[in-house]
Amino acid sequence: MIVDLFGIPGCGKTFYSKDLRKRMIKADLPCVDISRFNGMPLWLKICYKLADFAICLLPKYRKQKKVIKSLFISCENVKSKYVPFSLDYCINDIVLSTLIHDICNKLKIFCVNDEGQIQRYVFLMIQFGIPFDRLFSVYKQYNDNSFTIYLMSNVECAFSNIKNRNRHVCPMDEISDDILKMYLNDFYVGCELFRNNIGMTYSYSYNGLSVLSNRPLDF
Predict the structure, then answer these.
(1) Which domains does the chain have, with CATH numbers?
(2) What does the DSSP assignment read for 45-103?
(3) Helical ranges in 129-176 per DSSP H
(4) Residue 127: how many CB atoms within 10 A of its CB?
(5) C-alpha–C-alpha distance, residues 102 and 96, integer Å
(6) Which pLDDT tens digits describe the chain residue by residue (219 residues)?
(7) In what order do the strands lie in the sheet with 2-6?
(8) How far is the C-alpha of 152 from the C-alpha of 150, rounded, in Å?
């Protein structure tokens, strides 16, 4: 089973996912972290490379690409709003997450992903200005009701966390403060739109954060 996290950048998803994995292992629940990050294990890099290849060949995922691209009048010369990712890259990212879901939900272990499927849909929405209702209709077509956790954080805290970590490992770390605040605010709005439409009925507190989930966290 996959456990997907989403929330605005800088809210603590990576830290929470690592802590969640430790708690699950302590509760005798087999668990692996499948988050993509610098320095991830070789086996995970290979798995993602194979998955990238598979979504280009398998009919279900090729169709999903076409469905998402149909949201645009034209895919030519489409420019991202905040950070320089191409439209094809972002669409592939979503389709890849669908394949990862399909695989992980057949396994008898928990697979924790610190940037889950909704995170990638929100990113596409704010980067390329897709109306939420149109994008959400695609999400519903491919949603598998997986275990989903939302880490709620305000923009000010997230902005402070991003500036303090000072890691310079992705384009978001290099944009100006004003643009970063706009980006975080748009991301917050996108996360809230998804949260209000997918039934996050369980509420918890974690290190001062509000944590919502669509299933009970019994570990």
Answers:
(1) 2-213 (3.40.50.300)
(2) HHHHHHHHHHTTTSHHHHHHHHHHHTTSS--TT---SSS---HHHHHHHHHHHHHHHHH
(3) 132-142, 155-165
(4) 22
(5) 10
(6) 899 999 999 999 989 999 999 999 999 999 999 998 767 889 899 999 999 999 999 999 999 999 998 888 655 556 788 888 888 999 999 999 999 999 998 888 999 999 999 999 999 999 998 889 989 999 999 887 789 999 999 999 999 988 887 666 667 777 888 999 999 999 999 999 999 999 888 999 888 889 999 988 877
(7) 31-33, 110-113, 2-6, 147-152, 209-213, 202-206
(8) 6
What distances in angstroms separate CA 28 from CA 22, 75, 82, 187, 212, one per listed residue?
10, 47, 42, 35, 23
The first and second tokens of residue 12, run together, are: 């603590």
Token match 């034209």: residue?
A: 74
Q: How many CB atoms lie within 10 A of CB 5?
A: 26
Token pair in block for residue 206: 């974690």
The two most distant CA atoms of the chain are separated, in Å, by 50
DSSP state at residue 12: S
